[in-house]
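Flavoprotein involved in K+ transport
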Amino acid sequence: MSGTPHLSVVVVGGGQAGLSTSYWLQQRQIDHLVFEKRSAAHTWSTQRWDSFSLVTPNWQCDLPGHPYDGPDPDGFMKKDEIVAYVRSFVEKVNPPIREGVSVTRVTRRPEGGFAIATSEGDFTADEIVVASGGYHTPIIPRMAEKLPKSIAQIHSEQYRNADQLPAGEVLVVGSGQSGAQIAEDLHLAGRKVHLAVGEAPRCARFYRGRDVVTWLADMGYYEMTVDKHPLREGVRDNTNHYVTGRDGGRDIDLRRFATEGMELYGVLEDYDDGILRFRENLAASLDFADRTYNGINAAIDKHIAETGVEAPPPSVYQPVWTPPAERGALGLAGSGITSIVWCIGFTPDFRWLDAPVFNGAGRPVHRRGETEVEGVSFIGLPWLNTWGSGRFGAVGRDAEFVVSRIADRLSRKRAPLSVAV
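Tokens:
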């Protein structure tokens, strides 16, 4: 591979994880390139709906050398503000980035290091940092193929606003953060919404006078590492709690939506012969979400009692609505539904990386971003090390750690051999 450009580090992905990695590589004067198949940090502008806002307060935005410094640290940045925040980070980092370049294959070289094939040509590197996240391929179930062509179908990453959908009622499938917020967005726009509720937990926005995130920060939750979490690595598979930062922040209560006309069902399992079939688990799912909600608040109550912090009195959420009966089937033709928004997540796609670092589900096996294959590291995955690893709050700290380990390895490789005399 004579003449092939060689780098100490190649970073795959130009989102906040890749940019944070570049920041720390530059601090240590380590040569590198960032490859981004679209444009730097594009997902915030191209894969979020119009009313999108952060679900964590602005003070948690702490990219390296670029903390939030706006006028509302306890507020929640809206989409345009998030885009501006990230773009200013791009300008500050000024990374050596190749935008519009896809990495198509990475293989290990017999002599050490890696061969990288890209849409712009071949490169070699001592180290590979995978910073492309874990949300690659939108999940749309095969049952979608059986639905009538007259039903418009989009994934949550394609949703922008209610007006893009045809007139009529909307079925939202999934009640994680995206599903719950998109269902609310449609509901507030005056659309009749049918929501297939999943098994996602929820939490309060504010409790006893403060944002729940602020309480949990005081309690040290966001500093808990994955190896200290009761679920250990299993926490990486957890669904995020649904809540919103919209309009200054509030709870999302699916039961209240039901009192206002939203139709709730259990998990959507199939479509056959014109019938949508649902698992009869709506009541159990709502109860689980509320137990989590009250459980988090109870943990805050305990913290307040132990520390003596002054706060308003405690409370316990009481359901404002319960399903009168489980509904296992719905005839599509007579339902009024003309569109479906699939909000059931993504699957990872790391097929381009030829290295034995994945488990049976195709997910990276690592410890704080480092894999068992020397020179292959990951950044920006959920719970890579802490709750904030995939977010603005802690991705920079993770990147600093990974880069420090890279620097150590490069230093060892390049140290001159001592010769005994």
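The chain has a mean pLDDT of 95.
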